[in-house]
Write a structure and sequence with these properties.
Two copies of one chain form a homodimer. Chain A is α+β, with helices and mostly antiparallel strands. Chain A folds into two domains: 23-369, Bira Bifunctional Protein, Domain 2 (BirA Bifunctional Protein, domain 2), CATH 3.30.930; 377-487, Rossmann fold (3-Layer(aba) Sandwich). Helix content of chain A is 41%, strand content 19%. The two termini of chain A are 39 Å apart. At the A-B interface, helix 1, strand 1, strand 2, helix 3 and strand 5 of A face helix 1, strand 1, strand 2, helix 3 and strand 5 of B.
Chain lengths: 488, 488
């Protein structure tokens, strides 16, 4: 054990909010990404990755959470003096891409993306500062049919992610409908509109009473903090609340309620027509009321949405490592963003998209799956001078399709067996002097051994019997090990 | 076309060195990552991702290229006042991970990683500031057998990446051998040692004469820039040059040359013994002289290596988009880094690893593969009021296993056909009023159509004949389209 001369050692600690990801977590992420990407691909989208960095001005300020340095992004100065930041979603960079390459792109342009995005937020449990998002976007598509297809894609993506029909729901609203109800309520000041939208957005969490306070004078939360309200009179607040609560048992019923609420308002009639067309295409695509509902309480925080918006809610609860039920709520969302490309070019390009957050889902799936995966077969090394022999045997196993490694630590037999247990190895292979002389190997089936041990009282007798342990000719090593691995 | 009021629009440009990645590029990357990860997994390594950021002090200063701001990394200040940086490789973060969790890890600890790393370097052609690396590391393994296995893994990874035996070579050297020859040459000053190593590292590029100048007085390059040399006398420089050129036709021949060169030096004898043991395990693993050679000119820039070092060289040239041959040289490398965990803990933990750079390789593979992938079948929309019908037909095709989309732009028939061509669609489906009345669909086989068009002189006659176009009953749409897609 040598010690470096420098006593001022760095601390072995990780920046907060960026968890190390285990094999189980990575496998769950990969499985979700592959399944969801396959849906997008089947619907005609092509993969495109726009890279981790954009200029700060290209990203724009669209994040809902702006109480952080750099407005919620990780930004730094490039060596040419420009400021660049890690993407916080896939949509803003896509707008830059379309603006940069629009002459050469097919019209419409359909792309999907699967990769990390970064948010400079306060980290917390299940709240990561890096997470994987899988997005599909259609650019150059106007009209509710495109939004309806995006909602259908969202439903299919949820099912590909393992949520059966009935275990998830896509909840759909429209900025047009929100505009209409605010018009009817006489809310025209942009700041007041913002306060109203933030209040409605909390309907799921705070219920009718909480939102009522936020639309009126304001609300004091459990901690005693006071949030100033929109200051609306009771009648106006009532209209907005009725709107937010208009979701009924089916899309048709919700629509009929909204027709009454928004009657006599032009914007409202356009909103209703939009909902009708969305419903028609959803129905043609087999997306029933269980899969997609109209829900006027959906707002979506991102500032760039201009039309229909929707959220994918996971209804099925997951069990965490301690067996407690975890409800996820929204795991994805999307909507229409017709002005995002125009930020760059001045020309409006209608677009709609959907994004599902994979990392939280994967963490839940990995926690629920539990249990260690089967490890490699370990070829022990009895004599360090003959390690090449063990290496060759492990190579023979791998060539025979068996995951296998040579023990390359410096410890003796007991530690090697402990290592094999630790790795959840199905078997170990041992060649000592005696085996070598007789042209055989000793194979220990660790699962059979453990099962036998569990059923035996007399430890001494058991040890002499060595259950699960047997000899095999070298020529049969691979086939005997394969039998064990297939049972494991 | 609405125009936003704000005239000061952001520029649609990308930060340099972070290329947008096409579907072909992403597919090539994914294929390489999967193939190489499968090799690592088969050898008993488990996946672990340590996340994008580390504290700057945990990363340490090991990069060879330090002529950039922040010493070649992308760094920023976190909101708790600590400085964090994007990882520049997978090895330094692994050392942090092992130091942080060492009590709970299996010993040895074998992990693999596949993900992006970031270097704040001057971007250039095929020189990206983000690239994917696939690493395997074994921690807690001392002795040359572990290095030999790592070299064998490197060879297998190259073959999994598509390079046949003979199209790549793993070139192996040892810091011990480099120490030995510098001892014999009397080079003991650390700065002079650094100059000597940098000179030897350029042997591939500059040849014997170039390196001779860099070991002596110095060298003026083509641009007129002068690089100061190590200032060694001719005799000492001669010994170092003989060493760097000692690679012979086989590992055994190279070893016999090195034995002579390093004779009478203790360090040299230990280096020879190390090479002998590596050779023995490589031979047991079937890694022949074509797959792995001893090459004393290999240095490896990273400062943290302490023992055997090796590079994976791709010998087979690739063709770029213009048909020119591109030689890649080194696409990966690795070696022993026994002191990296001790930076944190003070206790030496022997470790060895290998890393292959996937992004450059993938770019080459994507360029060589060329050609557009087959696109989706496009269901045209003749009447915007009946878009739901087209949506349902596309859904039917997808349910039948066919990649398909509805045309959701706002253009007419000609533009829709142009779009289908642009997407490399195998076929389009058309339902006009006439077809609807008769319960049929019109299918255009675009490949058959294009082939027929190429063989026809009389454009007018051809247009009337409409080759590749036929009608089918709605009930046969999926099966007829499938036939076309399978031929495409």
């Amino acid at each position: 054990m040598s010690r470096p001369k420098d006593a001022s050692r760095p601390q072995a600690r990780k920046p907060r909010g960026f968890p190390d990801k285990s094999a189980a977590m990575l496998a769950a992420e990969r499985e979700l990404v592959d399944a969801i990407s396959a849906v997008y691909h089947r619907w005609g989208f092509d993969a495109l990755d726009t890279g981790p960095f954009e200029t700060v001005e290209a990203l724009g300020k669209f994040l809902p959470d702006t109480d952080r340095p750099n407005d919620g992004v990780f930004a730094l100065e490039d060596d040419d003096g420009s400021w660049i930041a890690l993407r916080y979603d896939h949509t803003a960079p896509l707008a830059r891409y379309v603006a940069e390459h629009r002459a050469g792109l097919p019209k419409p342009f359909r792309r999907y993306a699967a990769g990390p995005v970064w948010r400079n937020e306060k980290p917390g449990p299940f709240r990561f500062r890096e997470f994987i998002q899988c997005d599909a976007d259609a650019v150059g598509v106007a009209g509710p049919a495109a939004d309806a297809e995006m909602i259908a894609i969202a439903a299919e993506a949820m099912e590909a992610a393992g949520a059966a029909r009935g275990e998830y729901q896509i909840r759909v609203n429209s900025r047009l409908a929100l505009d209409a109800v605010m018009e009817k309520a006489g809310v025209s000041d942009p700041a007041q509109r913002g306060t109203v939208l933030r209040a409605l957005d909390k309907y799921d969490r705070l219920g009718r009473e909480g939102v009522e306070l936020l639309l009126g004078a304001g609300r004091k939360d459990e901690s005693g903090d006071f949030t100033k309200g929109a200051g609306l009179a009771a009648e106006k607040a009532g209209l907005l609340l009725d709107f937010a609560m208009a979701r009924a048992g089916s899309r048709a019923e919700t629509l009929s309620g909204l027709r009454q609420l928004l009657a006599g308002n032009n914007t409202g009639e356009r909103a209703i027509e939009e909902f009708v067309q969305i419903d028609e295409v959803l129905t043609a695509l087999g997306v029933d009321d269980a899969a997609a509902a109209f829900d006027p309480s959906i707002v979506r925080g991102l500032d760039y949405y201009t039309g229909p918006v929707f959220e994918a809610e996971l209804l099925r609860p997951f069990k965490d490592a301690d067996g407690n039920e975890v409800r996820f709520g929204s795991v994805g969302g999307g909507g229409r963003y017709d002005d995002l490309v125009a930020r760059f070019t001045g020309e409006q390009v209608p677009a709609t998209g959907f994004s599902v957050g994979v990392s939280r889902l994967a963490a839940a799936m990995a926690a629920e799956a539990g249990g260690a995966a089967v490890g490699p077969v370990v070829v022990l090394v009895m004599d360090r001078d003959r390690v090449a022999e063990s290496s060759a045997m492990a190579a023979e196993l791998r060539a025979g399709g068996v995951r296998a490694e040579t023990y390359l630590g410096s410890s003796g037999m007991r530690a090697q067996m402990k290592y094999a247990d630790r790795r959840n190895a199905p078997a170990v292979v041992i060649v000592g002097e005696d085996e070598r002389a007789r042209g055989v190997v000793t194979i220990k089936d660790l699962k059979a051994g453990a099962e036998a041990a569990a059923g035996v009282e007399d430890n001494e007798a058991w040890r002499n019997e060595r259950p699960g342990q047997f000899e095999a000719p070298c020529s049969e090593m691979v086939s005997r090990i394969r039998e064990i691995v297939e049972r494991a």
